[in-house]
Design goal:
Layout lengths: L1 E8 L8 E3 L10 E4 L2 E4 L1 E8 L5 E3 L4 E6 L2 E5 L1 H9 L6 E2 L1
Antiparallel strand pairs: 1-2, 1-5, 3-4, 5-9, 6-7, 7-8
Length: 93
């Protein structure tokens, strides 16, 4: 099963990265300031493959699925890390 994660970064080294299961509203502005410079957020969609039957809870901003040891809940950042590491059932699409 493939889902979309929404990533928000800034074009400067060491700036924060945010990941979510839901996109930010287009009218919402995000900035990051370093050394007097203001940087606008760069948004992109990241497609990841997750285990079949996984479900996203947008209210709690977590994804749940059945793992080898029972039910598991993870944040968007954790799902991204699992996909990047190619953990069992996860990969970048």
């Amino acid at each position: 099963m493939t889902i979309t994660l929404y990533q928000r970064t800034f074009p400067v080294q060491g700036a924060p990265v945010a990941l979510s299961f839901l996109p930010c509203p287009p009218h919402q502005r995000h900035t990051y300031t370093r050394d007097g410079e203001v940087y606008e957020a760069v948004r992109r969609e990241v497609r990841v493959v997750v285990p079949e039957g996984a479900a996203v809870d947008p209210v709690r901003n977590v994804m749940s699925w059945s793992g080898d040891k029972g039910p598991v809940k993870s944040t968007a950042g954790e799902v991204f890390d699992l996909a990047t590491a190619r953990a069992s059932g996860f990969r970048r699409a």
